[in-house]
Amino acid sequence: MTAKLHIREMLDAQPRGHISFHTPGHKRAGDDITELSYSDCLLSPSGVLREAEGDIAEILGADRSFLLTDGSTSGVFAMLYAARLCGAKTIAAPVFSHPCVLRACKALSLELVPIPQKVRYGIPQQPSEGDLEGALRVADALLLTSPDYYGFFPPLAGAKELCRREGKLLLIDGAHGGHLHFEPALYAGSYADLWVDGVHKSLPAMTQGAVVSSKREELTSVLREGVLCFRTTSPSYPIMASIEYAVKYPRNAAIERASEAFKRRHGCLLNGDWTKILVPFGGECDVAQRALEGAGVYPEFNDGNYLMFYLSPCTAEGELETLARLLTALARGEVGEGAPAGAIPMYSEDL
Q1: Residue 322 — φ and ψ, nearest 5°?
Q2: Residues near 53 by Cβ (< 8 Å), separated by ≥ 6?
Q3: For residue 269, which of 143, 161, 125, 144 has the smallest C-alpha distance?
Q4: Which of 98, 117, 118, 144 is most exposed, with minimal Cβ within 10 Å?
Q5: Per-10-residue mean pLDDT for the chain, 351 residues long?
Q6: What DSSP line would sit under 249-276, residue for residue?
Q7: Taking the C-alpha atoms of 104, 127, 169 and 99 in order, what is their torsion angle to the nearest 10 degrees?
């Protein structure tokens, strides 16, 4: 790591003998501090936080990027708020979008236009370009998930062109794609007007670390209003420092190659995202999960068809070798065709 880490350097340079007559109540200062004369203020950044956000925006190809310590959900709310301020009244989104899309639309009095998704091999399929075109005939803006939890992508270039042609906003929930700024062809920021990066999911940031960005200067002010509405007024400095660290973390091409080789070698579902390894176990999923966890290996999820193993640039190749060794001893069953366990269309009354 050679990039300058503005927030980390500020925290390391705190005055000695710091006596805390300020929040938080543990009174220990250190990394977990509040807005002080030397630590800047996220509500109106002008120092280290402004510098960190500026560097992040440059890396992500944004006009402006905003640090979020409330996770990607607050970024989705902020994007939809910005779309509302831009005049949008209806939002088209795939039915298996994150539930926060529905909740934000309810809170903001936005009407949702559902984009159907088929289920194939037990996984919701991303909508086609034709599906998007049909939805945009009756919607004012489009919100996509890219990549989804299974590592699949919507037709990003087609969506961008459709929205450009119709003069409508393209929003992307990239909660699982924070690592993709190294790959412009797959990165949400290469296509969207507004997008979220869930940095903590696939990069080395603390849980709840995320970024929301705007592509065009004229959208930055309305996105900022959304951020101020839905982001905490007491942001965590450790989380903010970890976001900056994570976005500036170097690419690990070796683990990317190792992941793709692993997928081919071990009969995994071939998706487009190296961080997500899907091993089909079908009816043997629970047995496989228990065996792996008994050996100290914990997958990201078990949906009743697949065990998913989530990688990051911090994953060691030796850890993949351990997983490979354990997989060879595990039986596999047939993958079902139904929707995965726990995957509820966001328009369901169950939400």
Answers
A1: -65, -45
A2: 45, 64, 65, 66, 67
A3: 125
A4: 118
A5: 90 89 90 94 96 98 98 98 98 96 97 94 94 97 98 98 97 98 98 98 98 96 98 97 98 98 97 98 97 98 96 98 97 85 58 41
A6: PPP-HHHHHHHHHHHHHTT-B--S-TTE
A7: 10
